[in-house]
Amino acid sequence: MVLECFEVGEGEVATVMLHGFLGTGRNLRTLATSWSAADPKRRFLLPDLTGHGTSPALPPTSDLFTLARDVVDTVRSRGVTGPFDWVGHSLGGRVSLAGSLHVPEAVRSVTLLDITPGPVPGNLSESGMVLGVLLQAPPRAESRRAMRAELTGRGLSEHLADWLLMNLHTEPDGVRWRFDRQALADLHSRVNGTDLWEAVERQGRPPMRCIRGGRAKYVSDADAERMVAAGCPVATLPGAGHFVHVDAAQALLEWLLQG
C-alpha cells in the first residue's frame, strides 16, 4: 500500500521519519527541515502512516508489520531501491523496529525517539488517554471551534486538542474526522502489546540508537540499561517530555547529527 508522503531535501541518503500515534508526517516536518539544512546529503521522506492523516484506511487486523511493509512500499514508489535509515517517534519507532525484523533488507539503521522495544503498559500510554477522549467526541461538528470545545470539555489540553484538530476534514456542513477512530483504537491495543526486544537483541541487526525525554516514562531506566547492554546507545534529554522533537528540538538535532 502506498501512503501519503511529504519530502524534504534532495540528497542521496534516504531517511524515512515516522510520526507517533494519531499524528501525521507533518508533525516531524520542522525537524526534517532543520536536519536537511544541517546535513544536505539526506533526503527525508515523511509518510502519514496507514490509517493516519490522508493515507489509506487501516485494513482489518493491521499490525506493526503491515504498517512497516506499507512504509517500504511507499519509499520504493519514490525511487529508493536500497536500504534506508528509519527514524521513528513513539508508534513510528515501534514500526521501525518491526521493519528491522520483517523487512530487514530495507533497514540501514533505526533511530528511536522516546519509545521502548517492550510492551507499553496502558497506564503509561499518553496516546491511550487521548484516544479515550477522541472516541467520546462526536463524529462531526459545525466547526473546528465547536470540535475543539468538545475535546477540551472532555479534559484535553488546548495544545493536544489543536494537535488532534489537524485530523479534521472540512465539509460543506461542518468538519468530520478523516480517520477511523475505532480502527485506530483496535490498532493501539495490538501495537502497544507487541514485544519487540528481539529487534534490538538479535544478532546481525542494523545499527540502532535511542533518545528519551527525561520527563517521559516510555523508556524506563531498566529499558535503557537493557538496550545499552544490547549495543543500542541511549541518550536522555533531561528537560524534555515524550515529544522530544518539540520540547528539545535543537538538542535533539545535535544528537541526530552525531550519528
From TrEMBL:
> What GO MF terms are annotated?
hydrolase activity
What sequence ranges are listed for the domain AB hydrolase-1?
A: 16-253
Q: Give the record's keywords alphabetically.
A: Hydrolase
- Extract the InterPro entries matched here: AB_hydrolase_1, AB_hydrolase_fold, Serine_prot/Carboxylest_S33
> What PANTHER family does this protein map onto?
2-SUCCINYL-6-HYDROXY-2,4-CYCLOHEXADIENE-1-CARBOXYLATE SYNTHASE (PTHR43248), AB HYDROLASE-1 DOMAIN-CONTAINING PROTEIN (PTHR43248:SF3)
Q: Which family does the record assign? A: Belongs to the peptidase S33 family.
Name the UniProt record assigns to this protein: Alpha/beta hydrolase
Q: What is the lineage of its organism?
A: Bacteria, Pseudomonadati, Myxococcota, Myxococcia, Myxococcales
